[in-house]
């Protein structure tokens, strides 16, 4: 698990590392610059290409100066440094690196206003104006300068954080940011890099390690954590000898209407392929033939017309409700029945969530430890409109804590908010998975893992990870443009077995 720190905590980790490793602050900057250059050399090997390095006068600018010096040492022939003296302040490490640069023959100039900047005609721009020290939206000279640079046709490589981009906190919709083709960031992705707003400003991000003290960063107990494969390997249990279908539980999936039976099929398939011993689908009678022909391993509990099915609640180790269920009277009654009769954690998705959004009194009946799996729109219907993902994260965290539920907020980096106040960012999945029915499969996987005896938290972390991982295994090596949910469900047994060897 990689703790994702806020800028303030990164500063603490810098300070701790400086005093405990120990390493001088200027040497830590040198290490950061070297890590950047190591990556840059491999990806921009043409040493004749002109590179403009724009440096502010803080530590991000200091990095820029050190990087310009190192690239020069690596025989990059055309480096042009511009220092923006838009304020009188300069950090000590910036000043030291300016002295070091002056001992080379790299040309540099200083400008006091954006108007003084002349076009460099460099195909590569290194952005070292402002980094994680940003404390207000860009205005004045920085704003003008960044607007000008955004109009230049060049590949922009940002050091640590693109100028004007807040590493955490709500991002204004009209924020002025120096748009980066690539960000080479230090130690960890910044939290906002993992939220959809980043897509407007950052095309690609690479993380380079600068050796901040890991024990210390863990001890900060950040609410934001990034889940890695090794975490899932620790949680996922291999199937054992001398077990039978009873060992792996019975999941009930309440889903589908006549015209949305696909949702029921896909979530039931997700449950079966993720390893539930038994999966029953509670579906309308009109869907029975489809169910039997799609996957004969599934069992049916029939919903006939307006009468509610007679569900034997004790039979089921877990229940998921919602995909394709509709929001009519019957669906509402069914959801109310589940919430009244079933006391173990359940999974609520899609129309299950929409029903709760319309009938908020139901919120109080959700069993503790239940898992809600909204996408952005469902989330806002449940908890109110949000204008930024950062705010959505804070709401998810607060709601999960107050209601003792797990909220899986679906996204590129799907985030699980827990009752303990943690926000876990998932590291798998890809754009080929952006297709209808994908969330239904996830719902089935979660119900399956609960049925198999995993805790709600482990079910969320494993479920989201393997869902994305199966999609990655299918799409990435084969460069597939789209992965269909049914195929993804079939991949799950292989994905899971690879994670348990
Ligand atoms: N020891 C460290 O702290 C390390 C820091 N590193 C670099 O240092 C950067 C952070 O450096 P700093 O904290 O000096 O901050 P920055 O270099 O990001 O910004 C410099 C200063 O600009 C001012 N400023 C902030 N927002 C502004 C705005 N909107 N308009 C005008 N001025 C503004 C602030 O006074 C800020 O301190 C990181 O992003 C990274 O690149 C790396 O060298 C690794 C080690
Ligand atoms: K920068």
UniProtKB/TrEMBL annotation:
- Name any cofactors this protein relies on: K(+); Mg(2+)
What catalytic activity is recorded? (6S)-NADHX + ADP = AMP + phosphate + NADH + H(+); (6R)-NADPHX = (6S)-NADPHX; (6S)-NADPHX + ADP = AMP + phosphate + NADPH + H(+); (6R)-NADHX = (6S)-NADHX
Q: Which gene encodes it?
A: nnrE
User: Mind listing the GO biological process terms from this record?
Assistant: metabolite repair; nicotinamide nucleotide metabolic process
**Which residues does the UniProt record annotate as the domain Rhodanese?**
9-81
Q: Where is the YjeF N-terminal domain?
A: 10-218
Q: Name one GO molecular function term.
A: metal ion binding
Say if the entry is tagged with keyword Oxidoreductase: no
Q: How and how many cofactors are bound, per the record note?
A: Binds 1 potassium ion per subunit.
Residues holding AMP: 410-414, 439
Which InterPro entries does this chain map to? Answer: Carbohydrate_kinase_pred_CS, CARKD, Nnr, Rhodanese-like_dom, Ribokinase-like, YjeF_N_dom, YjeF_N_dom_sf
Q: Which residues form the YjeF C-terminal domain?
A: 228-499
Residue numbers binding K(+) = 60, 127, 163
- Which protein are we looking at? Bifunctional NAD(P)H-hydrate repair enzyme
How does it associate, per the subunit comment? Homotetramer.
A Pfam family hit: Carb_kinase
What the protein does comes down to:
Catalyzes the epimerization of the S- and R-forms of NAD(P)HX, a damaged form of NAD(P)H that is a result of enzymatic or heat-dependent hydration. This is a prerequisite for the S-specific NAD(P)H-hydrate dehydratase to allow the repair of both epimers of NAD(P)HX.
Domain of life (superkingdom) = Bacteria
Q: Which CDD domains match?
A: RHOD, YXKO-related
């Amino acid at each position: 698990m990689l703790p994702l720190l806020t800028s303030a905590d990164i500063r603490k980790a810098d300070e701790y590392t400086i005093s405990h490793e120990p390493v001088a602050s200027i040497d830590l900057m040198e290490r950061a610059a070297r890590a950047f250059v190591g990556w840059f050399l491999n990806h921009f090997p043409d040493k004749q290409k002109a590179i403009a390095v724009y440096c502010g006068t803080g530590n991000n600018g200091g990095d820029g100066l050190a990087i310009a010096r190192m690239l020069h040492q690596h025989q990059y022939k055309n480096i042009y440094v511009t220092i923006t003296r838009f304020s009188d302040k300069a950090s000590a490490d910036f000043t030291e690196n300016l002295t070091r640069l002056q001992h080379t023959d790299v040309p540099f100039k200083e400008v006091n206003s954006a108007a003084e900047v002349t076009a460099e005609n460099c195909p590569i721009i290194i952005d070292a104006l402002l980094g994680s020290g940003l404390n207000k939206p860009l205005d004045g000279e920085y704003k003008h300068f960044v607007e000008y640079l955004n109009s230049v046709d060049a590949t922009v490589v940002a050091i640590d954080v693109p100028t004007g981009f807040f590493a955490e906190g709500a991002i204004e919709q009209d924020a002025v940011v120096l748009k980066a083709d690539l960000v080479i960031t230090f130690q960890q992705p910044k939290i906002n890099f993992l939220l959809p707003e980043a897509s407007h400003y950052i095309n690609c991000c690479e993380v380079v390690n600068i050796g901040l003290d890991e024990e210390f960063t863990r001890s900060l107990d950040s609410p934001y954590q990034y889940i890695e494969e090794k975490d899932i390997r620790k949680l996922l249990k291999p199937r054992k000898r001398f077990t039978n279908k009873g060992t792996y539980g019975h999941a009930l999936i309440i889903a589908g209407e006549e015209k949305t039976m696909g949702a029921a099929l896909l979530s039931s398939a997700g449950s079966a392929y993720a390893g539930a011993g038994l999966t029953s689908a509670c579906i309308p009678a009109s869907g029975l033939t489809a169910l039997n022909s799609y996957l004969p391993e599934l069992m049916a509990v029939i919903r006939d017309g307006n009468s509610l099915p007679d569900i034997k609640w004790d039979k089921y180790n877990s229940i998921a409700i919602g995909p394709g269920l509709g929001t009519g009277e019957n669906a509402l009654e069914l959801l109310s029945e589940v919430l009244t009769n079933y006391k173990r954690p359940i999974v609520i998705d899609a129309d299950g969530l929409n029903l709760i959004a319309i009938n908020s009194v139901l919120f109080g009946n959700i069993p503790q430890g239940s898992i809600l799996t909204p996408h952005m729109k469902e989330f806002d219907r449940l908890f109110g409109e949000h204008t930024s993902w950062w705010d959505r994260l804070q709401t998810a965290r607060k709601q999960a804590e107050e209601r003792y539920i797990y909220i899986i907020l679906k996204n590129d980096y799907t985030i699980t908010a827990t009752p303990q106040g943690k926000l876990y960012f998932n590291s798998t999945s890809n754009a080929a998975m952006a297709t209808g029915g994908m969330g239904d499969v996830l719902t089935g996987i979660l119900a399956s893992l609960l049925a198999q005896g995993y805790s709600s938290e482990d079910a969320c972390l494993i479920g989201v990870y393997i869902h994305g991982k199966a999609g990655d295994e299918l799409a990435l090596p084969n460069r597939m443009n789209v992965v269909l949910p049914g195929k993804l469900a079939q991949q799950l047994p292989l994905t899971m077995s690879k994670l348990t060897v």
